[in-house]
Amino acid sequence: MNQQVPTLQLNNGSLMPQLGFGVWQVPDADAEHAVGTALEAGYRSIDTAAVYGNEKGTGKAVAASGLPREELFVTTKLWNSRKQRWGRDEVLRAFDDSLGKLGLDHVDLYLIHWPRPMRDDFVSIWKTFEEIAASGRAKAVGVSNFRPEDLERLAAESALVPAVNQVELHPLFPQAELRAVHAARGIVTEAWSPLGQGKELLTLPAVTALADKYGRSAAQVVLRWHLQHGNIVIPKSVTPARIRENLDVFGFELEAADVAALDALGAGAAGRRIGPDPAEFDV
Ligand SMILES: NC(=O)c1ccc[n+]([C@@H]2O[C@H](COP(=O)([O-])OP(=O)(O)OC[C@H]3O[C@@H](n4cnc5c(N)ncnc54)[C@H](OP(=O)(O)O)[C@@H]3O)[C@@H](O)[C@H]2O)c1
C-alpha cells in the first residue's frame, strides 16, 4: 500500500485506503487517462460502478500501471436497475460482466448500488453477495445508499455484515445519525460526493476562511474534515492538478474547533442532500 495514505481495516480483515479516486461521470474513453494520472500521483484505491460505463477504461489503467495487484484496491457496484428481476443468476452475471470489463479476477469491494426499498429485493441480492464473498472473487462486500432501517433489515436476515456503506456525505450533509449506526455495527463509512460535487460547499465563507487559515485549498480543508471524522473519501477529478491536490492532505490537521465549525454547516435541519433520497430513488 502507498505509505502516504492511511488505511482502515474492514470487517473482512482487508485494509482499505482512506482516500481513493472516484470516476463517476468520467467517460470510458477518458477513464484510462484519469485513473492513470491518479495511480501515478499515488492513489491506490479506485471507485467505479457498472452504471458509470467506465469499468473498461479503469481496468486498462490498472493494467497499464504495472502496479502489483495486491497494492491496489478496486471497488465496483451492482447496478440493480428495475429493468430486470435481480435473481441469483442475474446478480452473478452482472458481477462476471464487471470483472470481465475490469480485466480482473477479483475486486476488493463489491457494493449494492442502491437499496430501492420499494422493490423489496435487497435481502435476496445480499444472499448472492454472500456467495460472491465466499468465492473470494470479491474480497469484501458492502452496500451503498442504505438507510439505518435497511441495515437493520440486513442484520435480521443475514449474518454477513456489510464491510462498507457508501453514502452521500459532506459538511452540508454530515449523516451524523447514520455514522453512529455504522460505528455500532462495525461498518466503515465511505463518503460519496465528498467535495459536495465541487459546487457551493467549496465557496462557503466558513470553508474558504479555513482554506486561508491553513494555506490550503477549500477542497483540501473539506477532505481533512472527512479524514478526521474517520470517513473514507473518494473525490473525483479529471483535472491533473486537482487529482494531485486532493491527495496532498496528509501534511496538516484541522484544529478541533475548526472541525466543529464545519460540522455546524449541515447540522440538524440545516443538512441537505445534493443527490437523490434513497427512500425514493428507483432506477
Ligand atoms: N454510490 C453512489 O450512489 C455514488 C453517487 C455519487 C458519487 N459516487 C462516487 O463518489 C465519487 C465522488 O463523488 P462526485 O464525483 O459526485 O463528487 P465530488 O468528488 O464531491 O466532486 C467532484 C467535482 O468536484 C470537482 N473537483 C474535484 N477536485 C476539486 C478541487 N480540488 N477543487 C475544486 N473542484 C474540484 C471536479 O471537477 P473536475 O473533474 O472538472 O476537476 C468535479 O466536478 C464519484 O466519482 C463516485 O465514484 C457514488
By secondary-structure content and strand pairing, the structural class works out as: alpha/beta
Radius of gyration: 18 Å
* Average residue-wise pLDDT: 97
Which assembly state applies to the chains in this document? Answer: single chain
CA-based shape: globular
* Main sheet specs: 8 strands, parallel
Main-sheet strand order equals 3-4-5-6-7-8-9-10
List how many beta strands DSSP finds.
10
State the end-to-end CA separation: 36 Å
The parts where pLDDT drops under 50 for at least 5 residues are none
Helix and strand element order: EEEHEHEHEHEHEHEHHEHH
SS element count, helices: 10
* β-strand amount: 5-15%
Q: What small molecules does the structure contain? A: NADP nicotinamide-adenine-dinucleotide phosphate
Which range best describes the helical content: under 10%, 10-25%, 25-40%, 40-55%, 55-70% or over 70%? 40-55%
Describe, in plain words, how this protein is organized in 3D.
This protein has 283 residues and is α/β, with parallel strands linked by helices. The chain is built from ten helices and ten strands. The protein has helices spanning 28-41, 55-65, 88-102, 122-135, 148-157, 176-185, 205-214, 218-229, 240-247, 256-265, and strands at residues 7-9, 15-17, 21-22, 45-47, 73-78, 107-112, 138-144, 164-168, 188-192, 232-233. The strands form two sheets. Strands 3-4-5-6-7-8-9-10 form an eight-stranded parallel beta sheet. The longest helix is centred in the middle third of the chain and has 15 residues, at 88-102. 45% of the residues are buried. The model has no long low-confidence stretch (mean pLDDT 97). The structure holds NADP nicotinamide-adenine-dinucleotide phosphate (NAP). Residues 22-24, 47, 113, 144-145, 166, 192-198, 202, 217, 219, 234-239, 242, 245-246, 275 line the site of NADP nicotinamide-adenine-dinucleotide phosphate.
